[in-house]
Amino acid sequence: METYIKMNETHVISDLSVETVDTDENVENEKNKKYFTCGICGKKFCQKQLLNHFHIHTKEKPYSCAICKKDFSQKIHLNKDLRTHTNEKPYSCDVCGKRFSHSGNLAKHYRVHTGEKPFSCDVCNKDFSQKIHLNKHLRTHTNEKPYSCDVWGKTFSHSGNLDKHYRVHTHGKPYSCDICHKNFSQKSNLIMMSLNYSLAPASI
């Protein structure tokens, strides 16, 4: 372990922003902190953080979920996984009240209210609020279809389209017409049927 950890006691105080240092006591505490440098990637951490970080390089995963048996390199990742089982959502939007299990998801959600779209398509310059939406959009340019039906082998660009396709095999038709009581596998087909009834001339 010692070959990968270098102690660095001369932390540069000038790197601190004005907002984070507002008293002499804070500056003095920062001076007294001992930072350690990862000998592999050069990142600096306090001792406890470095030990957690080191698991990334060693591929060690000492934290295990008792429910799904999945292993994790850091305890914070285990805690995130546990929320998927308990459905705990401790992070709340102070604008609309919607709750989230992870702080990162709350940060992404805030863009709905702020209108921020930091992810831009290099092809058509269209902007998106989340990277996952940009990745989906990019497939319209590349024609990439990473989702494959394991029955027919048909491929799709989006997982939602694959889910719709699977209903062909399962005969799942969850959408029912209130007028003719015919069932449909896709909501769009039900809407089209409803439009046909609304446009049809009334019987005399």
From TrEMBL:
<comment type="similarity">
    <text>Belongs to the krueppel C2H2-type zinc-finger protein family.</text>
</comment>
<feature type="domain" description="C2H2-type">
    <location>
        <begin position="36"/>
        <end position="62"/>
    </location>
</feature>
<feature type="domain" description="C2H2-type">
    <location>
        <begin position="91"/>
        <end position="118"/>
    </location>
</feature>
<keyword id="KW-0863">Zinc-finger</keyword>
<keyword id="KW-0479">Metal-binding</keyword>
<feature type="domain" description="C2H2-type">
    <location>
        <begin position="147"/>
        <end position="174"/>
    </location>
</feature>
<dbReference type="InterPro" id="IPR036236">
    <property type="entry name" value="Znf_C2H2_sf"/>
</dbReference>
<dbReference type="GO" id="GO:0000981">
    <property type="term" value="F:DNA-binding transcription factor activity, RNA polymerase II-specific"/>
</dbReference>
<feature type="domain" description="C2H2-type">
    <location>
        <begin position="119"/>
        <end position="146"/>
    </location>
</feature>
<protein>
    <submittedName>
        <fullName>Zinc finger protein 135</fullName>
    </submittedName>
</protein>
<keyword id="KW-0539">Nucleus</keyword>
<keyword id="KW-0805">Transcription regulation</keyword>
<dbReference type="GO" id="GO:0008270">
    <property type="term" value="F:zinc ion binding"/>
</dbReference>
<feature type="domain" description="C2H2-type">
    <location>
        <begin position="63"/>
        <end position="90"/>
    </location>
</feature>
<dbReference type="InterPro" id="IPR013087">
    <property type="entry name" value="Znf_C2H2_type"/>
</dbReference>
<keyword id="KW-0804">Transcription</keyword>
<keyword id="KW-0238">DNA-binding</keyword>
<dbReference type="GO" id="GO:0003677">
    <property type="term" value="F:DNA binding"/>
</dbReference>
<comment type="function">
    <text>May be involved in transcriptional regulation.</text>
</comment>
<dbReference type="Pfam" id="PF00096">
    <property type="entry name" value="zf-C2H2"/>
</dbReference>
<keyword id="KW-0677">Repeat</keyword>
<keyword id="KW-0862">Zinc</keyword>
<dbReference type="GO" id="GO:0005634">
    <property type="term" value="C:nucleus"/>
</dbReference>
